Amino acid sequence: MKVLVLSLLYSLAVAVVPPHPNAEFDSSFPLYSHDSRRQLRTEHQYEAQLLHPELCRFEDDRTCQVLDETLQRQARRTLGSIKSRGRLKVLVVLLRFANHDTREVIEASDIDKFFNANGLDSTLYPTGSINTYLKVSSFKSLTIDADVISWFPTNKTEQECAGGTSGLNQDFKSCFAPILDTLDSFHADLEHVFNWNKYDEDKNGVVDSLIVMHSGYGAEYGDTDPLGAAPQDRIWSHSMGPPEKNMWNSIHGEYSVGTYTVASAFHGHNGKNITKIGVVLHELLHTLSLPHLYDVSRSGRGGGVGAFSIMSNPWGQGDDGSFPGSLDPWSKIQLGWLTPTRITKSDSYLLKPSATENQVYLIDDPYPRGEYLLIENRQKTLYDAKMWNGAGGALIWHIDEAKNSNSEAGGPHQEGWPENGKHYKVALLQADGLYQLEQDINDGQWDDFFTFGKKLVPGSAGVHPNTDSYQGGNIISIGITIADFKEEGKNVMFTVSGYPQIGISDNPISDFQKCSVNVNIGQCSSFLTADIPLIEEDCDCYNFCGNGAIQGCCKFGEPCPITCESGGLVAGCTLAVEKPNDPDVDLDDVPGLGTPAENRTHDDSLRSGAQSLRWRNLFAAPVLLLLGSLAFHA
């Protein structure tokens, strides 16, 4: 047992869990900061990436930005400290408000099991502990080791700590700071078991993870609690990373507390049941740098990717938080828990269940940089066991890293879409084409999955969703089709078509002959020429990708298999002519190109040492147009 009992009485910026689906709120309490700001007639210009707008409800934009950027920095530090170790040491403190001195609270030993235990407990953790969820989701890349400090009384009431803002302010830390002060006094005692050093694994002087569990009922459940407290007078579960100047510091200045998570020890707005893992996990994962994936821009209660990710809906498909749903594949990739398999050719593919297998497919070529598709196999098992009847199969995610967040919903229900550039950073392409997640109509349903008879095709026929690129409102058909879905047991089979043939075995290239490549005529002209380092000896012709990467080698007189696996749009095949020690390359004679300065986008990053190559365009403009057209419609 990892419960530390303190027998000493004393007088203690952010992401917010979404409200419970069945919560009721009085109309006088604006549910979201956007509603509050509209009532106060204030502007909200800054768009937070990790910080939930709730924490900006009563703050100006500059303060909101400082809080958000601080949370990002601290989250990155925490994530960096555990990546190489695979373990997160967590300090859990239990805070009892002054007006709850007679309230029967959850035993500290039960909270310890809630965080650390293996196996299942039908009452405390029917689907496993916090540690079990993280271990399963990370494919054993991360475990937590939580030390629970026994219940500690404060001389402030819950209403005082809530401050009329559900505790969503920088002053809330004053309610638990006395606990840290007391722990600090024990740290100074060399013979005492408590030591801050245990919770600072990267030894940067900042406690890696602090969780405050309190004796109230979470404001996110709405309604009134047994004492008549409304949501604004209770604490809304959240995570915060205060500015460095406002961080709690130990008496000798050796240690400080940066990001922290706050959650109720209880489930619901009354009763004696322990909280569910969904809420705590959602907030804890924020402190590891994951953003919220629900839509915070609307006055609804969801949007985003619905119940398809715990970072969007921690209550899960069953609405109780015990089955919070899986972590989405994009988030797993951000945490380093998942390495996607890149698809580069037309073929058939087998996909194993994402809940138990470290497998997801990625299609990023020929999308623009930062835009790609992820394909996973989500089955009705483990934390998704309460998925909708008939649910299960392939999920296809459309990612656009150029977007900041999931705060701009888009869909065919909007005028001017998709050219208006509105879409989520992490979007789930719903197979039924109804875009109900974006409209906050539901949190998902069975026909959002790609199953037998469904397919994802180019958007030339006006079909939505589709495989088109839409970054920045620039719609480009990449010509890819994903189809032929069928289940084989728990596995999913599907095909990808539309990639050009990459082998030219019957057409070896001779000196100064052209080679056929996958060319997107709309994007290639800026990247046909650049100075780059010598990549391989005896290599005559390279495939030059639109993002500046060089991949593939063609030798004169031999077959020319060319593909672009490094992302970006393929520009063409170029001839290498050695030109040492000459930084000034005249490209004015290359047809279809502008001045050298305009066409050396990657020049500084790709130039290396004294030995360089002059790359000459081998395509005359009419031939380039022909090849681009053929490849585009392949």
UniProtKB/TrEMBL annotation:
Keyword NAD: no
Keyword Nuclease among UniProt keywords: no
Ranges where the record places region Disordered: 584-605
Location of the Peptidase M6-like domain: 129-335
GO biological process, one term: proteolysis
Domain of life: Eukaryota
Record GO terms (molecular function): peptidase activity
Record Pfam families: Peptidase_M6
N-terminal signal peptide: 1-15
Keywords assigned by UniProt, alphabetized: Signal
Database matches in PANTHER family: PEPTIDASE M6-LIKE DOMAIN-CONTAINING PROTEIN, SECRETED PROTEIN-RELATED
Name of the molecule in the record: Peptidase M6-like domain-containing protein
Organism encoding this protein: Cylindrotheca closterium
